[in-house]
Write a structure and sequence with these properties.
By secondary structure, the protein is an alpha/beta fold. It is 26% helix and 25% strand. Helix 9 links the parallel strand 12 and strand 13. The structure holds alpha-L-arabinofuranose. The site of alpha-L-arabinofuranose has 10 residues, from loops. Alpha-L-arabinofuranose (AHR) binds next to loops.
Length: 514
């Protein structure tokens, strides 16, 4: 190469660096028919924590806020629109303190419970099993009940299953009928405790594996034709030993799912503000969010070793961003705002789960309303939908669709000598042969051009939506609830099977084939 051309090349590279443009990324998409993205990957989690249940979902039957059996109607509509497939309840850490019988029968007779993990507040148990399961019916979502292993008993757990699932004459089915519900709800998903390595009892995996065997032995599906799906409390982040012991020591006929919890944060001991964060804090948050790729890969590899046929599934039943609580709110209530940073966490996490559909069959965002990375926030009668809500809404098209595996080398998002893959993609084909591609660019400054070879697919053109904003810190407020909403996206070209899109900095795009 001559000196002149070298100079021109250096100038171009220099300009690329400084104009925020970057080189094109080529994505290969395979047309594979075998694997589906389980709709339960789009699951949610609502714990008795802060204003999640009380003054969140549940405002009470006598509230002035329009409600159905005490659950606010605006939230019901919003969640229905998300097509939430599964909802986990009542915890979290709360689950291993909860005695379900305290939440049934006439409300005035119910004992109180002090929520020892979350703010030490006294709850009146007015929201209990019936309320939750009826809500799931209303939403068209499968309930996922997390049972109390830490401070409960085998009998208490077995009775709960009989109460909600037995269709005949039995002590618990009779009690359910006395309490106004004739037909059982048919609950399939059951968590055998929560975070047993921590708030669930500070157990070793060996001890918990034994306990799990005992509890699972007494779990009967009764006449529930869906069968029971038993989920073992899983590892904290990269505690691979935990998964190894469960897979090794629990007989495989007693278990359907193994859980995993992993949150995104700046530093666990110094989480920082949910809104007022700098680039260094954004970068660290995305490092922890993208670690999910390594986590599901390594936990899956351990599961593959003990269960090569893939009968036992990986259930990421807590994920999301975790920051300091909003100033002036109860520190135990975990109330935080939700910005474009959270949209990035949601976009990349859901792409990871989609792409790992072989083993990941459920994931539950923590949490639904007013807690951690919520999809909705409420203030009295007001409600807003967060950027995270909009990502979940844009991505719902992947639910139960066939996964189209993608492969590409991502451009890097570099900050202070460290780098992360800037672009994340997943794709699927639904039963009407419509292709959906979700693409995220987490780079805080650079746009990224991505090119897809779709020549093997029968596509005329695309429609597309984008979630983007001017600043990473932007968020919806009660005064401006629609600052961040999905908009039509046109910055793409589709010609002869070749799709080129330009992803602006910190944006989420979902394309739909025509
Ligand atoms: O989601 C908040 C808490 O985080 C849950 O109660 C617990 O399981 C996890 O540590």
């Amino acid at each position: 190469m001559k000196k002149n051309s070298l100079t021109i090349l250096s100038i171009v590279l220099f300009l690329i660096g400084f104009t925020g443009l970057s080189a094109q990324t080529e994505v290969k998409i395979e047309d594979q028919d075998s694997l589906r993205i389980n709709r339960n990957i789009y699951g949610h989690f609502a714990e008795h924590l802060g204003r999640s249940i009380y003054d969140g979902l549940y405002v009470g039957e006598d509230s002035d806020i329009p409600n159905t059996d005490g659950v606010r109607n605006d939230l019901i509509e919003a969640l229905k629109n998300l097509q939430i497939p599964v909802l986990r309840w009542p915890g979290g850490c709360f689950a291993d303190t909860y005695h379900w019988m305290d939440g049934i029968g006439p409300k005035e007779d119910r004992p109180t419970i002090v929520n020892q993990w979350w703010g030490g507040v006294t709850e009146d148990n007015s929201f209990g099993t019936h309320n939750f399961l009826n809500l799931c019916e209303e939403l068209g979502a499968e309930p996922y009940l997390a049972a109390n292993i830490g401070s409960g008993t085998v009998k208490e757990f077995a009775d709960w299953i009989q109460y909600v699932n037995h269709d005949g004459t039995s002590p618990m089915a009779d009690l359910r009928k006395e309490n106004g519900r004739e037909k059982p709800w048919g609950v399939k998903y059951w968590g055998v405790g929560n975070e047993m390595w921590g708030c669930g009892g500070n157990m070793t995996p060996e001890y918990y594996a034994n306990l799990y065997r005992q509890y699972a032995t007494f779990m009967t599906s009764w006449n529930n034709d869906k069968g029971l799906y038993r989920i073992a409390s899983g590892a904290n982040v990269d505690d691979y030993h935990w998964t190894e012991v469960l897979m090794r020591d629990v007989p495989h006929n007693l278990i359907e799912g193994v859980a995993l919890h992993s949150y995104s944060f700046v530093e666990w001991g110094d989480k920082g503000d949910a809104v007022d964060f700098n680039e260094a804090q954004y970068f660290s948050t995305m490092q922890t969010a993208l670690k999910m790729e390594e986590l599901v890969t390594k936990h899956s590899a351990i599961m593959d070793k003990y269960d090569p046929k893939g009968n036992i599934e990986l259930i990421v039943d807590e994920w999301g961003g975790w920051y300091d609580v909003q100033d002036g709110t109860n520190p135990g209530f975990l109330y935080q705002q939700n910005t474009m940073r959270d949209a990035m966490i949601a976009g990349v996490s859901l792409n990871i789960f989609n792409n790992h559909s072989k083993r990941v069959k459920m994931a539950n965002l923590a949490q639904t309303v007013n807690v951690l990375q919520a999809v909705a926030l409420t203030d009295g009668a007001k409600m807003l939908l967060t950027p995270t809500y909009h990502v979940m809404e844009m991505y719902k098209v992947h639910q139960d669709a066939k996964l189209l595996p993608v492969s590409f080398d991502s451009p890097q998002y570099s900050y202070e000598g460290e780098s992360l893959p800037a672009v994340s993609v997943s794709a699927s084909k639904d039963d009407k042969n419509v292709i959906h591609i979700s693409a995220v660019n987490i780079d805080s400054e650079k746009e990224n051009e991505v090119e897809f070879d779709l020549s093997g697919f029968d596509i005329d053109d695309f429609n597309a939506e984008i979630l983007v904003s001017e600043n990473l810190q932007d968020h919806n407020t009660f005064d401006s609830p629609e600052k961040i909403i999905p908009k039509q996206f046109k910055d793409f070209k589709f010609k002869r099977g070749n799709l080129k899109i330009t992803l602006p900095p910190f944006s989420v795009v979902v394309l739909e084939s025509k």
